[in-house]
Amino acid sequence: MHAELTLDLKRTAFLIIDLQEDQRSDPLCVAADLDKVLDRSATLLRAARENGVPVFHAAFVRDFNLRPPRPFEPLAEDGGPAFSRSGSPLVAICHEVAPIDGEVVLYKNDASAFEEGSLQQRLEALGIEWLVIAGVWTEACIAASVRDAMAGGFRVVIVKDACTSGTAAMHQTGILNLANRLYGGAIADTARTETLFKGGSASVWRNSRPVPFRFTLEDASALYAGL
Question: Residue 22 belongs to what domain range?
C-alpha cells in the first residue's frame, strides 16, 4: 500500500553502499545501469547535505589481514581476495558520490554495512530513526544492510531506483523480496526521496502485511514499477 510519509530530518540518515570503481570495470562486479544509479545517488547526496541529513558511506574492501578467508570463499589465483581487494584502486568510492569532510566512511569485509562494527552505535548516538539506503547490489549488500538495520531498530527507506544489481531482473526481484518483509520501512524512488530530504511529504510504498508479493517472473517488473 502507499501512504504519505514525512521524515524528521533530525532523526534521519543517508547510507550509500558500495558505489565503488570496481562496479564500473571489474567483470566480477559490474553493476547494471550504474551511471543512472550514480546520478540519482548524487542527487540525493546533494539534498541530504543541503538539509543537514548525516551521510554515511560504506565500501566493500576485502582485507584478509582483518578478516581471514571464510570457508568456501572464492579466491584469486594467488590466494588473495577474488574482488574488491584491499590496496586496489578499484575499491575507491566513485567520484560522483565521493565523501566530503565530516562524512563517515565504513570499510567492511562482508555484505552488511553493519559488519564494520560501528554503524549501529553511530546511528544511535545521533538519535536516528530512519535510515535511507542507496547503492549496490540489491540482493546482496543492500539486503544484508537493510536486514541488519531493521534488527537494530531502525526504519529503512529503500530508494529503489538508486540501487542496482548485476541485471535489472536481479535488482527488481531483490527489491520485491525486501518489500515482502520490510516491516516499519518504506520504498520510494529518487524524486520522492529528494522531497523527503527537503522536509516535504511524499507518497511511498509501505508494507502492511507479511509477503504481499507472491511474484512470478512474468509479473515481477510490473509489481516493481508499482512500488
Answer: 2-225
